[in-house]
Amino acid sequence: MTAVHVCAGRPAPLGVQDCHDGFNFSVFSRHAERVELLLFEEPTSDSPLAVIDLSAPEHRTGDVWHALVSGLRWGQAYSYRASGRWAPADGKRFDGSIELLDPRALAVRIDPCPTPGGHRHRSLLVDRSFDWQGATRPRRAWSETLIYETHVRGLTIDSGSGVAHRGTFLGIAEKLPYLRGLGVTAIELMPVQAFDDLHPTGRNPSGGHPLFNYWGYNPIALFAPHPRYASKLAPGSELCEFKTMVRELHRHGIEVILDIVFTHTAEGGERGPTFSLRGLDDSIYYLHGDAASNYLDYSGCGNTLNCNHPVVRDYILDCLRYWSADMQVDGFRFDLASILGRDEHGGLLSNAPLLERIAEDPVLRETKLIAEAWDAGGAYQVGSFAGSRWAEWNGCFRDDVRRFWRGDPGMAGAFAKRICGSPDLYSRNGKTPINSINFVASHDGFTLNDVVTYTTKRNLANGENNRDGPDTNYSVNDGIDGDSAAPQIERLRLRQIKNMLATLAISRGVPMLLGGDEFRRTQQGNNNPYCQDNAVSWYDWKLVERNAELVRFTQNVFEWRMRSPALSADAFYSSKEIQWFAPSGAEPEWQELMHAFGCVIHCPPYKAGESQADAGRTDAGALCLLFNASEAEIAFRLPVVAPYEWHLVMDTSLPTPMDILDAAEWPRTDATSGFTLSARALAMLCCGAVEPYSHVTL
């Protein structure tokens, strides 16, 4: 058994620091009456090798309890116990019998056999050193970013994924050739912070087997990667494997964005388990109602972090700095980010200190910040989230694009605004199109295949009697709910998927593609499969070959976006840059129930970052976009862009390979005299100096 030596230690920094002469342990608790540090020989040890009472004056400075311990090694485990008043009405929930995780643990061991009455999750001592081998951050501009949203486990856990390390961080690195082939420049990972995936959330009513949290929006340790995403069982392997994944993605020009949860934890409401924050200082870390025993719930998960309390604010900022500086993460998508702007009573602040601190923090200045600008308490701040540094998930883009292509009346004007970068939402307070993260599907809702396959959600397998998940999906089944063998239905569904993917590609703003939408991944109509760790959520890679036509289309349509800087510029169109027209050639009547219209985009004759004078060219090309969401073909009269002729490069109604130009081809069809566009279709034509170059180097 290891012999340990203890001395006073230091209060800062919080967490554990290797001080060469020992490990310094430091934890915050304002209201505890006694704190004990438990040290274990092995992470699985039944009993501690030492219990250090931090109640002596030399071990406490203000609200911080600390000790310097020598004689320990990497891989050993530790935890805390905090004793004090049990007075839930006052926000005091101290129980000296419960082992607590260090809120700043860099790695954790999750108890594989938790009991209803407790758990033995433990924090680990891990080496932070890593060889980055000279790999540096890609530092992509927003205007050249294509985000691919995915789940770590779901991406590669299926046996058909073709990777050696299925369901892990390393498995993602093995998918690099595929991601690069799509033109992806950033991968957005659903939560990787250690979360509780072992406490049942309910039971599947059809088989009675328990369901567990698969998505990961219930963190237990915000600084620690989820250990089950490592391929090895050795303590702390997840740190090295996470960094390896980041290094290899960076080496090939792909950034890493984390979907990060600072709004709530897995400790839930009144009857939830105690893992860490609740047992250390419930009244500081969480929002409470008139009676402190009542948790304010703006997350829909039972509790809400008190984000604008100074102590919690520093905790969140330190966590972001760690993931950015030590783990080399390039950006964050903040789950339910409106909560980060609520005060201690739950009110929305006009100038939230935490949001401003994150935006202005010097360590985070190059970090991409993305807000899910709403929460479960009714806040909806799309277009009005604080400051110009924050990009936002644009839920209006998703809804308006789906409704337009579904054929809803009166959507043409809103649709036109979305493809222009949503100026109605962002053309104020210094914001530009790159403040808009455009998407037509995300993890939260139907996949794109299911948007055109199901009219209503099918969530019975979640065990909540189909009450969970959004009821409004703006979806349409095109004739029959679910899979169909009818060729005409399948052709229409494929065309509608192409329409929405093409809309995503040609719209100003930052496109985000839901992983698997490019090969028609389905969740069988489940729009909230948070507890479905099975084929409902896993990627079926056989679909890549089965839907090779759509994969090819996706690759080419986003390559066209990269070839045409006008489509991804970080400014709104001026009246000289874009010209709208009805099929007749006249100006559109936006107030009419119009289902078809077009526009001409006059493109600069130079690449992004290059002036016209530098390019030495005076000729300008143009793109023509035609949209027909009606149920009949429509003849368009095309505007004249002298002295050029229009050439067709994309028509979603045509079969592959005629649906979109291949990278090495040149436009093939002269359509100067006019163009007839099939029902429910999108076309793109080009003329002049629009050439097949890319301003993105992969």
Automatic annotation (TrEMBL):
SMART domains per UniProt: Aamy (SM00642)
Entries under InterPro entries matching the protein: GH, GH13_cat_dom, GlgX_Isoamylase_N_E_set, Glyco_hydro_13_N, Glyco_hydro_b, Ig-like_fold, Ig_E-set
Glycosyl hydrolase family 13 catalytic domain segment(s): 149-554
Region (Disordered): 460-480
Gene3D superfamilies according to UniProt: Glycosidases, Golgi alpha-mannosidase II, Immunoglobulins
Lineage: superkingdom: Bacteria
Family to which the UniProt record says this protein belongs: Belongs to the glycosyl hydrolase 13 family.
UniProt name for this protein: Glycogen-debranching protein
